[in-house]
Amino acid sequence: ACGGGSQNRIRSCSNPAPANGGVDCNGDDSESQDCNADPCLVDGEWSSFSDWSECSVACGGGSQNRIRSCSNPAPANGGVDCNGDDSESQDCNADPCPVDGGWSDFSDSR
Fold first, then answer.
1. Average pLDDT of every residue of the chain
2. pLDDT tens across 73-88, in order?
3. Could you tell me if 62 and 95 are in contact, meaning their C-beta atoms sit under 8 angstroms apart?
4. DSSP string of 11-54?
5. How far is Cα 40 from Cα 33, in angstroms, rounded to an integer?
6. pLDDT at residue number 109
7. CB–CB of 34/52 below 8 Å?
8. Which of 4, 34, 72, 80 fits 47 for a cystine, CB–CB 3.0-4.6 Å?
9. How far apart are CA 101 and CA 14, in angstroms?
10. Which tens digit of pLDDT belongs to each residue from 8-60?
11. Is the whole model's pTM more than 0.70, yes or no?
């Protein structure tokens, strides 16, 4: 249906066959031609996701993401693009940040 191929056909020297000293048919008994030369449609497929990015913060709740591309293979020759999102996100480092202690002011002397 696509990508190139060939068609072949044959014939025989039988309409009528040579007889009584008649000569064989002149020319080739087969021929071929190219067909379906249009390139095949290639639908896009996703690559694997990248590794997760570093979290946006060290503590207190942040986010990280990862990406993928429509390149495994990329759509070609009228094929459809990949379906879905090219990125994902997730929460990370949700633990509260540490709070260092600090002195209050001294109280008045008594």
1. 96
2. 999 999 999 999 999 9
3. no
4. --S-TTPP-TTPPPPPS-SEEEEEE--SPPPB-----PPPPPPP
5. 19
6. 85
7. no
8. 72
9. 108
10. 999 999 999 999 999 999 999 999 999 999 999 999 999 999 999 999 999 99
11. no
- Tokens at 77, concatenated: 């020759």
Place of tokens 């071929």: 32
Q: Are 57 and 93 in contact (CB under 8 A)?
A: yes
Q: What is the pLDDT of residues 88-103, one digit of tens each?
A: 999 999 999 999 999 9
Long-range contacts of 95-99, Cβ-Cβ distance < 8 Å, separation of 24 or more: 95/59, 95/60, 96/59, 96/60, 97/58, 97/59, 97/60, 98/59
Rounded distance between C-alpha atoms, residue 39 and residue 2, angstroms: 6
